[in-house]
Amino acid sequence: MVAITLPDGKVRSYPGPVTGLDVATDIGPGLAKAALAVRVDGEMRDLKAGLDRDCALAIVTAKDADALELLRHDAAHVMAEAVKELYPETQVTIGPSIENGFYYDFARPTPFTPEDLERIEARMHEIVARDEPIACEAWDRDAAVAFFESLGEKYKAEIIGSIPAGQTITLYRQGAFIDLCRGPHLPSTGRLGKAFKLMKLAGAYWRGDARNEMLQRIYGTAWFDKKDLDAYLTMLEEAEKRDHRRLGREMTLFHQQEEAAGSVFWHPKGWTLYRAVEGYMRRRLEANAYVEVKTPQLVDFSLWEASGHADKFAESMFTITTQDDRHLAVKPMNCPCHVQIFRQGIKSYRDLPLRMAEFGSCHRYEPSGALHGIMRVRAFTQDDAHIFCTEDQITAETVAFCQLLKEVYSDFGFTDVRVKFSDRPAKRAGSDESWDKAEAALSSAAAAAGLETTLNPGEGAFYGPKLEFVLRDAIGRDWQCGTLQVDIVLPERLDAAYTAEDGSRRRPVMLHRAILGSFERFLGILIEHHAGRFPMWLAPVQVVVATIVSDADAFATEVAATLRARGLRVETDLRNEKINYKVREHSVAKVPILLVVGKREAEQGSVAMRRLGSPDQEVLALDAVVDKLCAEAMPPA
RNA sequence: GCCGGUUUAGCUCAGCUGGUAGAGCACCUGAUUUGUAAUCAGGGGGUCACGGGUUCGAAUCCUGUAACCGGCACCA
Predict the structure, then answer these.
(1) A458 lies in a domain?
(2) Which terminus of chain A, N or C, has fewer Cβ atoms within 10 Å?
(3) Within 7 A of a protein CB, which nucleotides of strand B?
(4) pTM to 2 decimals?
């Protein structure tokens, strides 16, 4: 007897082994038709997997959140089958489901072309129409290795070969295609449906290692129905519309050019935005008892040797040899310089914690392929600070930092923030004991700050563990911005010390921390998050005063002057154009407030206010408008 | 850095198999004084990314370089 407990608590008993499909059929033909897989005691299995003992069973249908993963995994297999049919000389490697879709990596001497993608996609539809059953087979490892070697699939054979000997593995067969796979899979290729699309071609290293050969990766997206697919494609279009590179040009915020690859030319409007962010951050730092410093751009290479950067990061540093043969580096980070300030004079425990901030301009020679708009550049400015403190102060400083960070993100319109805890990497400085201590201190501090963290194993900095703060933007994309890193190595290397209460000489701990990360990147994120429609306090131009007739010019000028005198960023539009034209232009330019002034308003001393995105207008007396707008344009905090 | 792609007017793009460049928008000028998302008419503007080569002739074919785009790797 096999007793199957269903999610509603009902128990069904069967005389012998059954499959999930049997149970679903038993419950009803509708469910049997919708069934894609089963969850047995919480674990996802094939619909046709045998159930030979008592268990809890749930039938998985398209409504289940993780059913999409199954679908996408199947899509990867169907794509691989299509590729093997069309290009038999191609070797298959791996093809997992990923967020929004799937990919498969292929090995072949000649790369795929965009035309190949169309052929492959068409063939995938044929395979779906064939509705080939997908069957799971158990194989002996060595037999599987031999089998794939005989097929000339050396990558597959290598993967299976790295599975411990003697273990039974599963292969999935659909039509003539057979692949190593842990499963589970849908019952047949027909279940994939039609809502999929191949998206792009890319190179990818075998086993993710740049020293290995490069494979051809094909990315696709897959959904249960066309509506979801279309929604996803629309979302991609939306993302493209708010691309910071496009908006940067359209809104004349900045530009980039070949002669300064990886740098930003900030135009007046972009720089206004930048300064609004910088001014806000400066006020927040002052309110949180930081001191601000400014350190040199060019520093003798010996300091980087002492700090340890020369060993590990020399390739990323811009270096200069002067006419008199001095070897300098443009600073890639600020910490060694901050330690130099700390080291001036004698520090006492009474000076700690010392929170030293700098809007530090740094240069790193990023690999050419890494550059991306203003998000990944070679010249950038960090909202950097180093907190010199005692071990006992780590917790309080971490708690205070997390609080500040949360407020800042919220002020910029980000409320969904996740936290990752990155522990010791393989390549690191410092003893295991000191790492034990630093990791313990940071994780208990994170707990004290009330953070829920997910572990990011081995991703810590070489000098210490870190917390990484990831914020989610308006269209659901994640951006890692803030960081807090415990550093027990640098104070030692650069000989930073303070005099303790008992007169002994001690090493401070350094907390490296940033909230925005880099201004350039954060501004890129801000642009995309707001789609260029900034809140008042950030908008480069907050108000445009536009006239309907030239008789209103004098009054419009007066309105603008009044607002400007109160600190608002105002422009006038006195051109000889129709008001429709002006409304459209300033709307397209994403100016939050348009004040329209015609003959009536000029006579009455009023303005007609129109907000971006709303066709409504409100006629207000000048005084009232000034107060209202000043209040709205006030930066937070 | 690696794989693939792209580079034509300020922007978006067209230019078939080689015969010395086009459109829309933007810009400039003129007319229009206009009531809430594009008024009309005229005009100017391009060493076709850069360097080599093939050819009587190259935006177009070959080749090298750079930047950019999409991934991969990297991200102290």
Answers:
(1) no
(2) N
(3) 1-5, 11, 31-39, 66-76
(4) 0.93
